[in-house]
Amino acid sequence: RKKIGVLTSGGDSPGMNAAVRAVVRMSIARGCDAFAIYEGYDGLVRGGDLIKQLYWDDVRGWLSEGGTLIGTARCAAFRSHEGRLQAAKHLVQSGIDALIVCGGDGSLTGADLFRSEWPSLITELVNNGSLTKDQVEPHKFLTIAGMVGSIDNDMSATDVTIGAYSSLHRICEAVDSIGATAFSHSRAFIVEVMGRHCGWLALTAGISTGADFVFIPERPPVGSAGKTWEDDMCDSIQRRRHRGKRETIIIVAEGAIDAELEPITPGYIKELLVNRLSIDTRVTTLGHTQRGGVPCAFDRILATLQGVEAVEAVLSSTPDTPSPMIGMNENKVTRKALVDAVNQTKAVAEAIGRKDFRRAMELRNTEFEA
Ligand code: ATP
C-alpha cells in the first residue's frame, strides 16, 4: 500500500485546506494511505507527532476553511544538509514513499532538491547507522509532486496559483470600501497590496476596481515626451478632478519599482499628491487581511482538481520522470517539470534585476513542455 504524505509550506494561502482534503481523499480512493506532515518542512525535520495519518472524515469541512489547518512554517533547518537528512529519516521511518508539497517557489525548490538528494541521503543514513538496509530498501526513490499555493500568483508555467483569486477578491472588497470614503471626502487613497516581486495582485485589483493608477514591478513608470512619470501622473489626476471626479485610488504593489529599480513607496506618491496637487491623501496598507478568510469558489475548485491530479501524478511517476508541478494552463490542469518552473520563476527576478522588463513578462508567460 502506497503511503502519500502532504504538507503545506511557506506563506499560507486560501485554498490550501481544500488541496490537502483533495489529496487525502483521492489517496484513499486510489487505495493508498494519506499522511499529513504538520508545520511544513519543520514537521519532516522534527518527525514524531508531526506526521499523522489522516482519514476520510478528518478533512470534512476543510473546503471552506482559510489558512492551512495542518500548519505551515519557514523552516531554516530544511535548507541545511543535516535538516534534510533528518527529514529523510523520518519519512522512511513513517513508511511514506511519496510527498506532495503545496507552497510557493521556495518550498518547491526545496522539494526538488530533496528528491534529487534522496539516494545519497538514504545511503548516508544507512552508513551512519540511523537506518538499516532493510528499512531503506522499499524507499530507494522518493516521488514528489508540487502544488503552487501562493496568493502572489508569481509562479511561471502556471496561469494561476491556489489562493490568488481569494486574495484578489479581498483586496477588491477593501478598495470598494475605501472608494466610498474617498468619494465622500474627495480624498486620494494609496493602497499598498502584497505580491512580493510580482504585480499580478496589484494589476488585477486595479482592473477590477477601476483604480486611477497601478504601480507594479514588471512595468516601471516612464514619463512621456520631456516629462517625468510624476508629472504625468499628477497631470492626469488633475484632469480627472477637473472633470468632476471626487475620488482617486492608486494601487501600489509592495515590490513596485521605478526604471532605476528604486522602490516606489506609497509615502512617496502621497507626498506628490499633497505637495503638488494639495489633495487630502491617505495611505492604506492592507497587510495580512489579504491572506486570511475563506477561499473563494475558484480556489476551492482549483485546489480540488489539482489535488486529484497531484495524487495521479505521484502514482504514475517513475524514477526517470522529473518531479511534476501541477499547474493550470488555459483552463486545463497541467503537469510541468517542477525544476523548469522553479528555474523560470527565478529567471523572471533576474530579468527584472537587469532591467529587461520585456523578457521578465515573456518568462512569466512562456510555455514549455514537461
Ligand atoms: P511564499 O511564496 O508564500 O513566500 P515560499 O514557498 O516561496 O512561499 P519560502 O520561505 O521561500 O516560501 O520557502 C518555504 C520553506 O521552503 C523554507 O522555509 C525552507 O524550509 C524551504 N526552502 C526554500 N528554499 C529552499 C532551498 N533552496 N533549499 C531547501 N529548502 C528550501
UniProtKB/TrEMBL annotation:
GO CC terms in record: 6-phosphofructokinase complex; mitochondrion
Kindly state which keywords UniProt assigns to this record, in alphabetical order. Allosteric enzyme, ATP-binding, Cytoplasm, Glycolysis, Kinase, Magnesium, Metal-binding, Nucleotide-binding, Signal, Transferase
What is the first-listed, main subcellular location in coarse terms? cytoplasm
Q: Where does ATP bind?
A: 11, 74-75, 104-107
Sequence segments annotated as region (N-terminal catalytic PFK domain 1): 1-370
In this chain the Phosphofructokinase domain maps to: 3-314
Query: This protein's superkingdom?
Result: Eukaryota
Binding residues for Mg(2+), per the UniProt record?
A: 105
Summarize where substrate binds, as residue positions.
150-152, 187, 194-196, 254, 282, 288-291
**A single MF term (Gene Ontology):** metal ion binding
Q: Where is the active site?
A: 152
Q: Which GO terms describe its biological process?
A: canonical glycolysis; fructose 1,6-bisphosphate metabolic process; fructose 6-phosphate metabolic process; vacuolar acidification; vacuolar proton-transporting V-type ATPase complex assembly
Subcellular localization, as worded in the UniProt entry: Cytoplasm
Role summary: Catalyzes the phosphorylation of D-fructose 6-phosphate to fructose 1,6-bisphosphate by ATP, the first committing step of glycolysis.
Q: How does it assemble?
A: Homotetramer.
Family according to the record:
Belongs to the phosphofructokinase type A (PFKA) family. ATP-dependent PFK group I subfamily. Eukaryotic two domain clade "E" sub-subfamily. Belongs to the phosphofructokinase type A (PFKA) family. ATP-dependent PFK group I subfamily. Eukaryotic two domain clade 'E' sub-subfamily.
What's the protein here called?
A: ATP-dependent 6-phosphofructokinase
Recall the taxonomic lineage recorded for the source organism: Eukaryota, Fungi, Dikarya, Ascomycota, Taphrinomycotina
